[in-house]
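Memo to structure team: turn this sequence into structure tokens by end of day. - J.P.
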Amino acid sequence: MKRIKGIIALTCAALLALSGCASAAYQARTSGGTLASKPAGTYPTGPVKLVIWWWGEQEAAGAKGWLADTVAAYEKLHPNVKIETVLQTTDSLVPAFQAAAAANQGPDIQYFWGGINAQEPAWAGHVLPVSDYIPASELKHYLNAATEDSYKGKILTAPWYVNPQFPVLVRKDVLAAHGLKTPTTWSDLLSTCDKLNAAGITTLAGGVKDGWFGGWLYSMIDGQLVSSPSDVTAAVTGQQKFTDPMHAAWWQRLQETVDHHCWNADINSQQLYQAQQQWVSGKAAMTITAGTDAPNFVKKVGADKVEITTMPKIGNGPYAGKMGTTSQTVGITPWTKYPKVDADFIEFMHSPQRLQAWYDKTGSMPADDRFDMSKVTDPVKRQLFQMALNGAPYLENYIPAALDSNAVFTNVQLVLQGKRTADQAAADMQSQVERLRLTDRSLVNDFKAWKR
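Reply from structure team:
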């Protein structure tokens, strides 16, 4: 979903606003995964100016105020340090950083989405691993750092806040009106689809016109069928195939949702958040949303009418019945003059007061296991946070973005349109990754080094 620099940088950034996209384009990397490095030095006593480029207010409202307060508190402790923060638009974040990397100048601290979104910039030499500057005793508390942001024994970027991906929202009142309960297994879901379809009610409201929802479905369904993210990276590198039963089965499950009329009839002409309004209005029993936005949807309908759950359970694998989770991150750039200060500020973001302040300001979950969950009194948020803590890897973060957009997005649309079978979709995904391995020779080595 991301490699052709000019076009993909913009479209991928738009997707990332919904938190389901892979990274921007770094096809031209020639470093072969050699990570950038720079001595930490000592903490300076003279004047220091830092610049932070960030994103996040768009999905965690209140983040802007939290960051302003955090900067003010840090500057009070370190009067010689001045920090400028620049909130990027969704469309500008990725291409602006690409331009900065090309010029070898720009922000000292940069915001990255997790997984492949941070991996590829680091493989290109555009990130200093935070583990070179922040001790392991600190980093071990950062949620998802080891699973998503590690490479060759180092942690590349520092998780900031957690984004549960993606909860299923259920209208209990709609189901009850038809004598139904929340489906918990895949067979339950298909049976529910049959009964609601006969009554003229949509079971699942979704929209794939813009493509992004396809990546969500891939992660939510196939995430229950694999045994580890290493299965996915192995298929990328050629040690497994996307036509193998483990990987191809998810296309069969998707086909079953079509056969049982689970979706709104206009799913291919609806964009993601357009379709969710059908759930709000009671025209659909279930929908799927980004974790940070789930409480807002619950408020629109009323907590007494809503249940938050996961995609119904498929099989008995380690991630069956679990929700994917990822953490949005910040990283240190190789052109910064003050990596020691950058790292110290990132640690300050994780201090107890700032963790609590993050939740108070945004209502979302800080990416740190030291956050006091007892302070979360809202039952919806508490449930969502617990689901994230016990969640599964988010698979879209483990495939090349070009494969995501060209194979996953496109084939989901075609399967839902009835223009491609499940077997054809799996075969096309395999064909796409084989082509990608030929056109991006460093891909295999980078992914092998990243294997879990």
